[in-house]
Design brief:
The protein is mostly helical. The chain has one domain: Up-down Bundle (Glycerol uptake facilitator protein), CATH 1.20.1080.10. The protein is about 60% helix and about 0% strand. It has nine helices and no strands. The radius of gyration is 18 Å and the shape is globular. The two termini are about 15 Å apart. Keywords: Membrane, Repeat, Transmembrane, Transmembrane helix, Transport, Vacuole. It is found in: Vacuole membrane. It is a multi-pass membrane protein. GO terms for molecular function: water channel activity.
Length: about 270
C-alpha cells in the first residue's frame, strides 16, 4: 500500500463481508521512500513538534505561573485546552500532506485497519518521535526550565495506568476513524480535526489526575528523551499502542471491513 493521507479518501468504497476485510499491508520501499512520502514524513515531524511544543509548554507555563505548585482543577483545564487546540491546529495544518497523525498510536491503529502500510507507518512513527524530541529540546532551551515527564499519580499502579491509557487511546483512534477515515462519515469529515482535538482534551480532563492522559507515545517520548527519565515511559508506549491497535482492528477491520484503499496511491498523493 502506498504512502498517502488517511484523512483524504479518493477511492471508491466497496462493502464486503467480515470474511473479506481489509488486509494489513507490509509495504514496499518504493511506496515508502519517494518524494510524496518524504514530504509526509517532514510534515509529521513539524506538526508533532508544534503539538508537543504547545502541550508540554502549557505544563511548563502553568508551573512557572504557580511556582511549581501541584496541578489544580483550573490548571488541568488549561493544559487540556492547550493540548486540544494544539492538536486541532497540528492535524489541520498537515492533513492534506501526511494525513495529520501526530501520534504513533494513531498511525499504528491506521496500519492495523489497513489504511497505511506497516513500513510507512514505522517511518511515520520515527518522525513523530523526532518532532516530539526536538520540541522538548527547544522548550528546554527557550525556557531554561525542567521538562515535565509523564508519570503515574500516587496510588495508581502500572497495570491500572496501562489500562487507563488503553481506554482513552482507543477512544481517540475510534474518533479518528469515525470522523476522518470512515467512507460513510459524510459531513463529519469537515470537522474531523475539531473532534479529534476535543476527544484529546476531554480524555486529559478524565485521565490527567491519574496518568497525565498521554494517549501518544511521541508526546511522552519527547520529555523522557530530554530528561533521560524513561522509568515510566513503557506505560505510555504499551497502553496507547494497544489502545490504538484495538481501535484499528475493531473499527477499521470489523466495522468498516472494506476492500477499498482508505488512502490514495502515491501517484495521486495530494
Amino acid at each position: 500500500m502506498a504512502v498517502t493521507s488517511c484523512l483524504v479518501l479518493k477511492t471508491k468504497f466497496s462493502p464486503m463481508s467480515a470474511a473479506k476485510m481489509m488486509k494489513i499491508a507490509v509495504g514496499t520501499l518504493r511506496d515508502s521512500i519517494n518524494l510524496a512520502a518524504i514530504k509526509a514524513y517532514i510534515a509529521e515531524t513539524i506538526a508533532t513538534l508544534v503539538f508537543v511544543f504547545a502541550g508540554v509548554g502549557s505544563a511548563i507555563a502553568y508551573g512557572e505561573l504557580t511556582k511549581d505548585a501541584a496541578l489544580d482543577p483550573a490548571g488541568l483545564v488549561a493544559v487540556a485546552v492547550a493540548h486540544a487546540f494544539a492538536l486541532f491546529v497540528g492535524v489541520t495544518m498537515v492533513a492534506n500532506v501526511s494525513g495529520g497523525h501526530l501520534n504513533p498510536a494513531v498511525t499504528f491503529g491506521l496500519a492495523l485497519g489497513g489504511n497505511i502500510s506497516l513500513l510507512t507507518g514505522l517511518l511515520y512513527i520515527i518522525h513523530q518521535m523526532l518532532g516530539a524530541m526536538l520540541a522538548c529540546y527547544l522548550l528546554q532551551f527557550v525556557t531554561n526550565k525542567a521538562i515535565p515527564v509523564h508519570a503515574l499519580a500516587s496510588g495508581v499502579g502500572a497495570f491500572e495506568g496501562v489500562v487507563f491509557e488503553i481506554v482513552i487511546t482507543f477512544g481517540l483512534v475510534c474518533t479518528v476513524y469515525a470522523t476522518a477515515v470512515d467512507p460513510k462519515r459524510g459531513s463529519l469529515g469537515t470537522i474531523a480535526p475539531i473532534a479529534i482535538g476535543f476527544i484529546v482534551g476531554a480524555n486529559i480532563l478524565a485521565a490527567g489526575p491519574f496518568t497525565g492522559g498521554s494517549m501518544n507515545p511521541a508526546r511522552s517520548f519527547g520529555p523522557a528523551s530530554v530528561t533521560s527519565d524513561f522509568s515510566s515511559f513503557w506505560i505510555y508506549l504499551v497502553g496507547p499502542m494497544i489502545g490504538g491497535g484495538l481501535a484499528g482492528l475493531i473499527y477499521g477491520q470489523l466495522l468498516i471491513g472494506s476492500s477499498y484503499a482508505a488512502i490514495p496511491e502515491s501517484e495521486s498523493y495530494p
